[in-house]
Amino acid sequence: MEVISENQNQNQNQNQYQVQPPVKPDSGLVWGILTTLLCCLPFGIVSIVYAAKVDGLYYAGHYEEAQSAAKSAKNWALAAGITGISVGIIYLFLIIIGVAASL
Amino acid sequence: MSGKTKILLFITTTAILAIAVVVYYLIDPAVSSRMPRCPMLALTGYRCPSCGIQRAVHQLLHGHFAEALRYNYFLVLAMPYAAAIIVTELGAHTDRFRATSTKVMRYIYHPKVLIAYVVLYMGWWVVRNLLDL
Question: Which residues have a Cβ under 8 Å from the Cβ of A37 and sit 6 or more positions away?
C-alpha cells in the first residue's frame, strides 16, 4: 500500500514540477448546475455527472480523458441551456399570442 | 470559441439576465397568470425539482429569503453552491484570488460533491412529491 501511495505521490509531483501539465479542462459546471436549478432539465444532470469525472481524471494524470469528459459535460450543459431558452421563448410567444387574442 | 463569439455570447446572456431580473422583480408569478407554468406539473401533475423557482426568484429579488425558500427548499443547498461556483470561477480569473479559488475549487468540483448534488436533487424530487412540499 505504501509503495503505491508513494508512487502516486511521485506521479503527482512529477505532474506538478516536470513538464507543465495542461490546464484543467473547464467542464462548464456552472451551466450544469444552473440549468438543473432553473429549468429542471435532465440534460443538466447528465452534464453534472460528466463534470464529476473531470477532476478525478485530471488529477490522476489522464488529461485526454479529462478533456473529453469536460467536453461532454459542456455539450450537455449547452443542450440543456438551449432547450431551456427555447422553451422560454416558445412560452413567451404563446403568451404574446394570448395577450394579442384577448385585446 | 473565438473572442468575438465569446463577447457576443456574454452580451446576449447579460441582456437576457437583465431583462429577466426586471420581469421577475415586477411580476409575481404566484399572482400573475402570464408567467409560464412548469410543463412537467401541467402535463403530469407532479412537481419537478425546480418547481417554485420563479416565485422564489421574485421573492429573492425583493429580499424575502424565507418566503423564497418556502417555494423551493432545495434552494437552501443550491443557492450557496451555485454562488460558490460562480465566485471561485470569477476568482480564478484574477491574479489576487487565483490560488485561493483553485484551492476551494478542488472541493467544490470534487466528484463526490457533484454526485452528492445529483443524488440530493433526485431525492428532493421524490420527497417533495411525497410530502407535498
Answer: A44, B50, B53, B74, B78, B82
